[in-house]
Every structure is written in C-alpha cells, then in structure tokens.
Amino acid sequence: MLKLRDVKISFLSSEGLLAPVDSVDIDLKEKETFTIIGESGCGKSLIANSILGLLPKDAEISGRIYLEEEDLLSLPEKSLKKIRGRRVGMVFQNPSSSLNPVFTMRSQLAEIMKYSGMSPALQNMVDLMQKVGINDPLHRLAQYPHQLSGGLKQRFAVAFGTASDPDILIADEPTTGLDITLKMQLIDMLAQLHSQRSILLITHDLDVAYTLSDKIGVMYAGEIVEVAPVSSFFSKPLHPYSRKLIESHPLREMKPIPGNSPHIAERPQGCRFSSRCEHGDLCCCSTHPEMVQVDEDRFVRCLAYA
Ligand SMILES: Nc1ncnc2c1ncn2[C@@H]1O[C@H](COP(=O)(O)OP(=O)(O)OP(=O)(O)O)[C@@H](O)[C@H]1O
Ligand code: NI
C-alpha cells in the first residue's frame, strides 16, 4: 500500500551534507499498523513528514515513496495536496504547533474538511467528535486551542488527521505528554481506527508499540536496523540495540542503554551501534552491515546474522 524505498533525507550544514535519514525501506500493508520506534533524533519524524511532502524547505530527499503504484516524490505539489488529508491523514507530533491560535476549533476543522472535499456540516463534525471521544462537542468546537487541555488537543489532532476517513493514517507520537488515563483512552481510539485502515505509527513508548502494532521497525541513527512482527519482536528481539531497548523498559530490567547514539557528523564507518554494543568485534567498526532476512518476515542489520 505504502512503500518507502531507499529514502534518504539530508541537510546542507556547516559540517557538510548530513543525512539524518539514510536508505530507509518501509512496507505498510493494508489494514496493518507499522510502528517505528527508536531514540529521540534518530529520524522518525523526518520520515513521517517526508511522505506527504512536508519536510523543511532546506531538506533534500532521494529514493521513492510509493502510494500504490504512484511515486509521491515525483508528484507536483498540486497532486500531493489532493492526497494529503484525503488518502493519507497525518497526526503531527506537536498538536499545539499545528493548531492556529486565532481560530476556533470549529473553523479549523471546517477548513480541513473543505480541503479534503467533505461538507463541513455541523452534524459531520459532531459525528467525528464522537469517534475520537470528545464530549460536549458543540462547546469544544466553539473553543480556541488555548482553552483546551493537552488531552483534548491530542484528540482534535486525531480528528483532524482522520476527518476525511483516509486509507492511511500517519501518527507521530500521538500519546506524548498525556497522563496514563488519557494515554490509554487514545490507545483505545487508535486501536479502533486500526481495524479500518493502515497506520504508520511513530512512538518511543514501547507499551504503545506493543499494544497497537502488527509490525515493528526499529530505527537507530537514521537507519532501520530491525523489522519484525510485534509478538516475535518482543519475545525474541534480534538486533543488540532492540534487545537493549526492551531491557531498558521499566517492567523489564530498566537498564538504561550506556552511551549515546553517534552525532550525525561522526557516524562510524561500520555498524552505527558498534560503539555501544558489547557483542561487537573489529569487523563491526569497519564493515557497515546490510539488512539481512533471517526468517520469512524478519529482517536485521547486524553482522552477527550476515
Ligand atoms: N530542519 C533541519 N535542519 C537540519 N537538521 C535537521 C532538521 N530537522 C531535523 N534535523 C536532524 O534530523 C534528526 C532527526 O530528526 P527527527 O525529528 O526526525 O527525529 P525523531 O526521531 O523524530 O526524534 P524525536 O523522538 O525527538 O521526535 C535530528 O537529530 C536533527 O539533527
Ligand atoms: Ni519526532
């Protein structure tokens, strides 16, 4: 349904051309939830934003992003606009920054519905509010963003992303900043959406990933290092980084991963995780591992499996 092939995103900086996202391949199938997990700064949001052509202006992108047979990277802005919201919806990482402070929620939602080719009739809005669990919709629609709690803003963000009933939803950290009750409610809501459409979910919350995903893609320093179905991933993670990520969970050993991920300008020539990996040998520092298939639907980028 949605296929990313060899996607590379780079920026020109004083240190030269830096690529926070490097040769990323992702396959999102119909009615499947594919979740990207990984530390802050590994490139998750850049990937999410690249799909709908919403990268910063100074970003360069190469590779191919197929929606069905169409390569979105080769489409003019006019055609992308038709896809945005209608076929692919987006829930942005920071709802406050994507809401306009001077308009009521109703006028912002109306704008999005019109843009997506839907009638902004009040009843349609109220139905949508119900789907995302916003109580007292007439009151909430009349409010401005600053009058809403974080949880409500997050719900509105999901309402905006799903207003036109898109086939694909991209949700970037939809549960960040929510308390545990709201987080559980949002997870329930996403789980309901999940049965009807494909979701590309981005989170660094392993509980969210475990609950909602069909497949997990682990990112480290701009690369996907493991792809696996959710159950086999959590029962038997293959990449040393995945194992450490799971061990760092509070309900497991709560062991933080020692060290930091390498700065973009100082990535090692070999495996990018080599400096933090206790299993690495000399080869790991000099040979960059390719993604290898180790089982029908399991892929890992580690020389131990090459
Ligand atoms: N406009 C930009 N100019 C230059 N570099 C950028 C720009 N935007 C992002 N980057 C670089 O890309 C890296 C990845 O950013 P991205 O927002 O995709 O990370 P992330 O994985 O979503 O992190 P988080 O979990 O904190 O949201 C950042 O560490 C930053 O160095
Ligand atoms: Ni992000």
UniProtKB/TrEMBL annotation:
Residues 2-246 form the ABC transporter domain. The keyword Nucleotide-binding applies. Its EC number is 7.2.2.11. Keywords: ATP-binding, Cell membrane, Ion transport, Membrane, Nucleotide-binding, Translocase, Transport. Its main location: membrane. It comes from the Archaea. This is Nickel import system ATP-binding protein NikD. The lineage of its organism: Archaea, Methanobacteriati, Methanobacteriota, Stenosarchaea group, Methanomicrobia.
